[in-house]
Design goal:
This protein has a single domain, classed as 2-Layer Sandwich (Pseudouridine synthase), CATH 3.30.2350. Helices cover 16% and strands 28% of the residues. It has four helices and twelve strands. The chain has helices at residues 37-44, 73-84, 158-166, 231-241; strands at residues 7-10, 14-19, 54-55, 64-70, 89-97, 104-107, 111-112, 122-123, 133-141, 144-151, 207-215, 222-226. The strands form two sheets. Strands 1, 2, 3, 4, 5, 6, 9, 10, 11 and 12 form a ten-stranded mixed β-sheet that branches. Strands 7-8 form a two-stranded antiparallel ribbon. The two termini are 34 Å apart.
Length: 243
């Protein structure tokens, strides 16, 4: 896999990158050879201290968007505390199946990671940890909708699990949805292409981390980063808007 990882912000204390889909945030104990974002940064050589970067939060392998790293222990401690106290704002875009009957929804189902034989996060009222996500419907396109998600907690797969539990799984989500890629032929009327040659508009979990707002761990300066979704996500939305 060859790609370039865009650097959004870099200073002596932190690094913000636009993670492409397909890279793990940290190595996988079940698949140690899987490509990681830290490995890609080190391989490209654009970040001299890539191997010493400290993980502050994670994005799922197929999720694209803003990912934050600390460059030293002091910054790591400050940023980790900021996440724990919910003083860092995160915003996502998700393309989901279905049309929610609500414009805004706060979901607080408690979550338990690694809760079944597929190692999925499950809703567990007895043993799950508190979790809260605020969802806002941005647009609907018949059988699909574009949703903004703002997680107030940081549980594993939180947005994906909450959306699936509400009945609107993320498009192409293999764990909490049907895993099916989105094809133009699935929603365009009178489509006359070759079904055997058709390429999917988006074939990975349609989730993108587009907003990150925080106070700099050293200076206290207010930082706000926003990044548009990648080509596959934009192409899928553009085609749905033509309906």
């Amino acid at each position: 896999m060859s790609t370039s990882v865009p650097i959004i912000h870099s200073d002596p204390d932190l690094l913000v990158v636009d993670k492409p889909a397909g890279f793990l945030s940290v190595p996988d104990r079940y698949d140690p050879d899987a490509a990681t974002i830290l490995g890609e940064l080190a391989k490209e050589g654009g970040v001299k201290d890539a191997t010493s970067l400290l993980v502050v939060h994670r994005l799922d392998k197929d999720t694209s968007g803003l990912l934050l790293f600390a460059r030293n222990e002091v910054a790591h401690k400050g940023l980790s505390k900021a996440f724990e106290t919910r003083s860092i704002e995160k915003g996502y875009r998700a393309l989901v199946r279905g049309e929610p009957p609500w414009t805004e929804m706060s979901c607080d189902y408690p979550l338990k990671p690694d809760g079944d034989r597929l190692h999925r996060t499950i809703i567990d009222g007895g043993h799950g940890k508190p979790a809260m996500t605020v969802f806002t419907v941005i647009a609907t396109y018949g059988p699909y909708s574009l949703v903004e998600a703002k997680p107030l907690t940081g549980r594993t797969h939180q947005i994906r699990v909450h959306l699936a539990a509400l009945g609107f799984p993320v498009v192409a989500d293999p764990l909490y949805g049907d895993g099916k890629a989105l094809f133009l032929s699935s929603f365009k009327r009178k489509w006359r292409g070759d079904e055997f040659a058709e390429r999917p508009l988006i074939a990975r979990t349609a989730l993108h981390a587009m907003l990150l707002a925080l106070a700099h761990p050293h200076t206290g300066q207010a930082l706000r980063f926003e990044i548009a979704p990648p080509k596959d996500f934009r192409a899928a939305v553009a085609q749905l808007e033509k309906r």
